[in-house]
Amino acid sequence: xxxxxxxxxxxxxxxxxxxxxxxxxxxxxxxxxxxxxxxxxxxxxxxxxxxxxxxxxxxxxxxxxxxxxxxxxxxxxxxxxxxxxxxxxxxxxxxxxxxxxxxxxxxxxxxxxxxxxxxxxxxxxxxxxxxxxxxxxxxxxxxxxxxxxxxxxxxxxxxxxxxxxxxxxxxxxxxxxxxxxxxxxxxxxxxxxxxxxxxxx
Length: 201
Fold this sequence. Notes:
Blueprint: E1 41-45, H1 49-59, E2 64-68, H2 71-80, E3 83-89, E4 91-92, E5 95-96, H3 97-107, E6 112-117, H4 122-130, E7 136-139, H5 144-162, H6 182-200
Parallel strand pairs: 1-2, 1-3, 3-6, 6-7
Antiparallel strand pairs: 4-5
Helix pairs in contact: 2-6, 3-6
């Protein structure tokens, strides 16, 4: 089974009552259009139109939403915007998500990741959870209530971790010892660093 977090600084928040928002949840004000420069975004990665439609329906008025159908598109979005939470399929354009998430979390250790899959791979889930790489692992079809609650709590977790920058290294997972595609990992690292430099100029 998945190892428990080392202490309460990394612990997941308790489940909130679905009838109301969690205490620490700070959505984008509904009276204003979402602003990518002011609020962390929710990035949906993968080809599933159903997932995007559901996320868009649930959060279009309260969250900044971004979409990427490939790893390259995801890297561009991550380089241009502050992304707080990622929702991703287990495979993106035939590339295994675990490689992508491991490298991504090394470069963006505060990023909170939710994985969706129609084919639950328990070994992959346990490895990702134990390495501190994912926040939720949800089996499709995911109910709207579960997805809404998971995303809201993921943003709580992101904001709480962001408020403790001195713990940054604790959120960064060790490089995978079983990297099957070193070129992919190198490409992700190089792309993220190049994008960060470009958009800071």
